Amino acid sequence: MHQFALLRDLVILVAVAIPVVAIAYRLRIPTVVGFLLTGIAIGPHGLALIGQPESVSALAEIGVVLLLFAIGLELSLSRIIKLGRAVALGGGLQMAGTMAVTALIAGALSVPPNRGVFIGALVALSSTAIVLKVYTDRGELDTPQGRVVIAILLFQDLCVVPLMLLIPALAGATPAGARPATLVVIGSVVLTAALVLVGRVAVPRLLERVAALRNREIFTLCIVLLGLGAAYLTASFGLSLALGAFIAGLVISESEYGVQALSDILPFRDTFSGIFFTSIGMLLDIGFVLQHLALVAGATAGVILLKTAVAGAVVRSLKRSLPVSLMSALALARVGEFSFVLAEVAKPLNLFTEESYQLFLGAAVLSMLTAPFVIQAAGPLAEWLGRRIGKHLPAALAEASEPAATLADHVIVVGYGLNGRNLAKALKASGIPYVILEQNGQVVRQARLNREPILFGDATRHEVLERVGIKRARVIVFAISAPADERRGVAVARHLNPDVRIVVRTRYVSELEELERLGADQVIPEEFETSLEIFARVLRLYGVPTSTIRQEVEAARGEHYGMLRGLSLPGMRLDLLRQLGAKMAVETIEVEAGSRAVGETPVTLALRRQTGCTVIAAVRGGQTFHTPDPDFRFHAGDTLVVVGTAEALARAGEIFKGR
After folding, report:
1. 259 in Cβ contact with 17 (< 8 Å)
2. pTM for the full model?
């Protein structure tokens, strides 16, 4: 029965995890918390349902590999290069600052310097898995705080390998036959560069050949092989398993097969990462935590406060606003999953006593358990803090507030991404006054060089909206990708000006009803707009007239996308569509200069005989001619109302088109 021990442990783990995670989901608690609680419950220090967690740890290590592989697939090399300054400067300052402050505090507590630096390394790393999971669930990956947090987390993940090389040196232990540290570092850099360069050349060609087979199973197996194979290769050279998987993910993400690869790997990642977090929960000794509850709670609070202070100062130095700095800092204030990997490496080297190891585990697990709740509360806390100590708004807003003070009947554009830029161009071309709010300092500076009326500020705050004249504005448009900020911003804008028209662009359909309830006049979900465009193009292929298609699309928007949400039936039945396509329809056609119709009459053109269409009205210079007589001559610029079949209307369009 021994050979089935691992299977038995997995059965117990999954059987307990399902109800715990289900309860967490019903209570709107992230599933990561459910897995941690599962591990605590079934581990050797809990109910002891799994007495030998080492067997599960092997699967947990695969979970870390797949987790980093999926993160690499989601990030891509080009995105890392784009985040270059934030990665290098923000990540470097956060790691160095946290390690230095922790080492100084440890030294004040009479901890030897080598152990102080090691503890600093454990504290400096944050949980990539938890933060990305929570940010993904909340739709905040593409927000200002999401971008800077991803950059710093990425730098932390890249630091894992150097830190693992540093641990034996801190312990004063060099394994027999080990290579000099300098050679190991050089070898690590060379191997990493070789994997990236060779992978960027070979992997796309390999995946192209595999995709040509049109076999889903072979493609998935190939993706798994690349991820695990790269992990094995780096491990065989003495580096981290996770580093190889991360590099493989980055390389694959640059090819056109990155999206499919990510979708194929997600089920494996979710399963094994769940096992990983469960295995972490198993390590925690509940008896030790209860006996030293004050010490563990104090250590947890100390770690969170220290990391929040350092990370907040670092993000602020990157010219981010106070709310963004605070939200980013609170997200980074957890101990990371790789801290457990470093702890396992250091334990045999006597950098830990058993008591200090359990203290670390207790503080780390508790910080992870609090992470989802703190991140959720970060937005309201940042807004409250901004009101309390931020009467002085960011300098950039105060300096540039004069132009906004003179605006009236204007448009406020929140967010200067692609949608915001396009809207600003249209408003400028139309001569409509507008002002832009943006939280990215670099974007603000660049836009000001282009003489855009842009201000640095957070549109969820009363003071900021008042500075840009919300009470005098006609329209405010939220063109951002942050559901939580959209909801708060809509509520604040509606409170400050009950008459302002609020337009919101949202990525998620689930936000539509909530935004309307908070006061949004028009909510434009990207998913539904894409569906409407597909709907319109398909109808054109079936010969349905453009005017009819336009009518139906506007009707769908007018009923708040009820047809697509399943709340109502479409006004146009398929049999009616076929009738419209086969029978008569009405279209407006402009007489273009240079067309052979100019100067002719319906009789001389023999329009009905040649095309099958009839002109039932004409508009010229604002005057309408109903049922033009046979002597009516067409002029360039006339707008004709023509009736006929779809094919007939197409033929008529050619006659009135300029040469």
Report:
1. no
2. 0.60
